[in-house]
Amino acid sequence: MNDMLRVENVAKSFTLHLQGGIELAVLENVSLSVSAGECVALAGDSGSGKSTLMRMIYGNYRCDEGAIRVRHGDAWVDLAKADPWTITEVRRRTLGYVSQFLRVIPRVPTLEIVAEPAMARGVGRDEALDRARQLLERLRVPERLWSLPPATFSGGEQQRINVARGFIARFPVMLLDEPTASLDAANRATVLELIEEAKSAGAAVVGIFHDADARTQVADRSFAVAARAGAGAA
Ligand SMILES: Nc1ncnc2c1ncn2[C@@H]1O[C@H](COP(=O)(O)OP(=O)(O)OP(=O)(O)O)[C@@H](O)[C@H]1O
Q: Whose CA is nearest to atom 3 of ligand 1?
């Protein structure tokens, strides 16, 4: 198997400082590998730890135990032990993340926001802007909005800009947190197409899809994230 991502024996608990230091154990002994061209859907009840696992893979949450190995160029990097600079480098070149919410940068026009991850991966400005236009067109974001900062855009418009940012750079490993939530049928279909195209180009994809039809369409398999005894107790 041409693995791109290996999660090995990962554990995570949260300490709730505002509630007397209660320890909330969420994940224990989680192992998962994802190969190039494969899409794995994280499945499990609400509160089971799907988003927590995704944030750990992105390096937002530290692991209590275990390793999160990502193939970064010719090397393997363990994000559980990597320093912040290395995590930033892995995100710039290897690891894309479509979160549910767009982090808006004040005053920066939509077109630039979408083009930025491609430029950060070394794509020339003109080509990056071209790709951004194509993606915004495919995702039906009206051209009159492209020169405006997206702060005041609707939830669905912001989500499509987030999707465009996630897909423009052709990351080898992609994390998708509910990429079709709050989209209409036509845009939902486009996002599923983009996921299929990324897989065909060799991306390893990990997704959370509450939309069961979307999951069936793009995921090659599901990975059950099981809530630990005690999780959700607080
Ligand atoms: N930063 C945090 N601090 C404390 N507890 C947290 C934190 N993040 C998540 N949790 C807890 O961890 C558990 C798992 O949450 P998580 O968001 O990963 O679940 P999920 O499977 O993604 O749920 P859903 O399907 O509802 O989005 C929950 O009980 C949640 O309260």
A: 14
